[in-house]
Amino acid sequence: MATLPVFEKFVRDLRAIWAATQDNETRMKRAQPLMERLVREETLIAHSKQWPLTVGQNLLFYEDGEFNFVVNAVVRPPGYVGSVHDHAHAWVLYGVMDGQERLERYDRLDDGKSPGYAELHLASDTKGERGKVDLVPPYAIHAERGGPVRSVAMILRTERLVGRTLQHGYDPKTNGVKEMWGPKQVPYALEVTL
């Protein structure tokens, strides 16, 4: 078995970006066009048809031992409603590869000084279709919502947070905030039979 060539090239190109600069925002802005191409790759889209649903978990395709960035994917059932959350200090590129999703972004209205409390306002609700890649900055409060059919998205993170960094989950209805570790990481090989 061998890794899909298009994915191998994506990782090589990411490593070159990470080697060229130390600033994560710059890295992610340079990686965004690469992600936009990746999520349109027909061989990867075809491969994704066999990926399992990932409610409560992420598929872990690659974690870089030198630069620490991580490539994940999620596969959502129709109508999936994701939690409102942030990714702590990490930058994230989120690219819809198949189906449709929506990305809700929230503004925090309170000063953040009351533990367990956050007053949120829905700032935007962006429709994501095949090829759409969103850049989510550190501590940005957001939620992904599934569309009418199964959807698949690739995720590039500046680092793996699960088990290492607490993130926040928010409940806009109750103004509650809780700390959480994020979804379980499930190693998954992007292999092709030769």
Structure characteristics:
194 residues, alpha+beta, Jelly Rolls, three-stranded antiparallel beta sheet, 3 helices, globular
Order of helices and strands: EHHHEEEEEEEEEEEEE
Oligomer: single chain
Which class best fits the helix and strand makeup? alpha+beta
Pick out the low-confidence regions. none
Biggest pleated-sheet summary: 6 strands, mixed
The second-level CATH architecture is Sandwich
Q: What's the pLDDT, averaged over the residues?
A: 92
Q: What fraction, in percent, of the residue positions are helical?
A: 10-25%
Query: DSSP helix count?
Result: 3
Radius of gyration: 16 Å
Q: What is the CATH topology classification name?
A: Jelly Rolls
- The dominant shape is globular
CATH superfamily: Jelly Rolls
What is the domain total for the residues? 1
Q: How many extended strands?
A: 14
- Work out the strand percent: 35-45%
Instruction: Kindly report how far apart the N and C termini lie.
Output: 6 Å
Q: What is the CATH level 1 assignment? A: Mainly Beta
Strand order of the biggest β-sheet? 8-5-10-3-2-13
Give a quick precis of the structure.
This protein is of the alpha+beta class and 194 residues long.
Fold and architecture overview:
This protein has 194 residues and is of the alpha+beta class. It has a single domain (2-188), classed as Sandwich (Jelly Rolls), CATH 2.60.120.10. Helix content is 20%, strand content 40%. The protein has helices at 5-20, 24-38, 42-48, and strands at residues 2-3, 57-63, 70-76, 84-85, 92-98, 100-108, 120-129, 133-136, 141-146, 151-157, 167-171, 176-180, 184-187, 191-192. The strands form four sheets. It has a six-stranded mixed beta sheet with strand order 8-5-10-3-2-13, with helices on one face. Strands 4-11-12 form a three-stranded antiparallel beta sheet, with no helix packed on it. It has a three-stranded antiparallel beta sheet with strand order 7-6-9, with no helix packed on it. A hairpin with a 4-residue loop joins β11 and β12 (176-180). The protein is globular. The mean pLDDT is 92.
